[in-house]
Amino acid sequence: MSKRFIDIVMSLFGLAVAMPILIIMSLLVFMQDYKSPFYIPLRVGKNEKLFKMVKLRSMVVNADASGVDSTGASDSRITPIGKIIRKFKLDELTQLWNVFVGDMSLVGPRTNV
């Protein structure tokens, strides 16, 4: 079985399982300010190819315009729903879409070093 086939099957399964949570969280993020519930930054993939990574938005719109690169738990740009998204790492679930379309690949467990 090829790695790509496994990526497609596992990402579809993950999206199907996560869909109820993603729909609810997307609606909650949208209802905060009636803006897109997704944050879609450009990332560099294999062979330096740019792609748009899909994440649930946990911060106010245009938070990256403030010039601050790192965020802490007490960052005022994090929305109330964003605190829940970050606590349970729900913003990572949307990246299964990027795996499905071939922008990213699933990675196995990492070793503890």
Summarize the structure.
The chain has 113 residues and is mainly alpha-helical.
Task: Give the helices and strands, then pairings.
Blueprint: H1 3-33, E1 38-39, E2 42-44, E3 50-52, E4 55-56, H2 80-87, H3 95-101
Antiparallel strand pairs: 1-4, 2-3
Helix pairs in contact: 1-3
Give structural attributes.
mainly alpha; two-stranded antiparallel sheet; 9% strand
Walk me through what this model shows.
The longest helix is centred in the first third of the chain and has 31 residues, at 3-33. This protein starts with a helix and ends in a 12-residue tail after the last helix. The chain is built from 3 helices and 4 strands. Helices cover 41% and strands 9% of the residues. It has helices at residues 3-33, 80-87, 95-101, and strands at 38-39, 42-44, 50-52, 55-56. It has one domain (3-62, 74-101). The chain is mostly helical and 113 residues long. Helix 1 runs antiparallel to helix 3. 14% of the residues are buried. The protein has a two-stranded antiparallel sheet. Strands 2-3 form a two-stranded antiparallel sheet.
Structural class: mainly alpha
Strand order of the largest sheet: 1-4
Arithmetic mean pLDDT: 89
Total discrete domains: 1
Gross morphology is globular
State the low-pLDDT regions, or none: none
Rg for CA atoms = 15 Å
Distance between the termini: 30 Å
Q: What kind of sheet is the major sheet?
A: 2 strands, antiparallel
Tally of separate helices: 3
The percentage of residues in β strands lies in 5-15%
Strand segment tally: 4
**What's the helix-strand series?**
HEEEEHH
Estimate percent helicity. 40-55%
